[in-house]
Amino acid sequence: MPTTNLQKTDDFSGQIFYVGLDVHKKSWAVTIRSLGIEVAHFSQPPGSEALSNYLNREFPGGTYHSAYEAGFCGTGTHKELCKLGIKNILVHAADIPSTDKQKKNKTDLHDSRAIAGHLERGNLHGIHVLTQEQQELRSLFRLRESKVNDVTRANNRLKSFLMYYSIKLPETVSKNEFLSSKALAWLSIELGCAAGTFALQQYIEDLKYQRQQLFHITKSLRVQVLASHEKTYKSLLSVPGIGAITAMGLISEVADFARFDDPDEYCSYLGLCPWEDSSGDTITTKGVQPRCNRHLRPLLVEASWAAIRKSRTLFAYYSKHTGKSGKKAIIKVARKLALIAKGVATTGQLYQDDYLKKKQQEQQIKKQLKAERFSSGITEQHINKQPDHRLQIATMPG
Predict the structure, then answer these.
(1) pTM exceeds cut of 0.90
(2) For labelling, which of 74, 97, 176, 378 has a CA lying 20 to 30 Å from the CA of 131?
């Protein structure tokens, strides 16, 4: 049975303490473990300083590791804990292992105990924490996304009102689902009484206000992106199908594209990887995984439909995988488009439609030159000093 020297000394230098936190608005549930033993559990008012004072008072000289679920409180608590010398990580709630019994009997006590136990066993891995500047840029992009929904709601409310009173717009004024400025100007009419006329004008003013807000938010977002990520923004715009909104979304949500070393990890973050439910010889591949960045996947899928119309390379890739389902094929195109976006954003270069074809030609010519010169007895060092004119032609732009 593991033993501890907590009662024999007040010096815990070199000893590691694992702190599981269940963070709420009005209270924190705290569980502390060390040497495989739960040494403390309590509730405290929310605050990183109070927790730090308790650890330094009760377990002076120790090394403190903590973790809590990412949620409503953002990353402010995480930064405060790190400043106070506590090595904290933010974990995704779905990444904390739990038994069926723990799922059915869920309390703050059980949550903090589970986090502390899994943290001590090394089962938890922290999520990537964006900088303060990047988080604010992401919030502005998500505000724009919410405002787009507000514009759609205001437009639909006005259309429902017109349909209820059988008010039909002339085809010369508006043919689309979204009411144009000409349609709003035409709607300066009077209904049967003052109440209906006032209600109609309020619906119109609400739609105008929401559109004006959307315009100002989009303009501000573009200014902020150009101020800090101008080179990346222009590189993304060179990719077929990626427009201004998709480019700003990728920059705001992904931030540092180089943080994804594995392409599968990057595509999994975007929700462009299938998930599997297999057992033995039975292999079942389901659709795209539900856990993803829900703000980017719709943008990339929409951009893919535009990309296959603009790029013959991407259209050929879509044609190759379309088979019986075009929806599955477009997800493959979205994955490829996302990887292309990552490549141009990381290198800072503009997109070239036939880049892969030129790269393959260059590699084939290199192999051919190496074989020819090796048969002539020329060394590898001499090959690098005297490149062949065919290789120069293959690598020329255009």
Answers:
(1) no
(2) 97
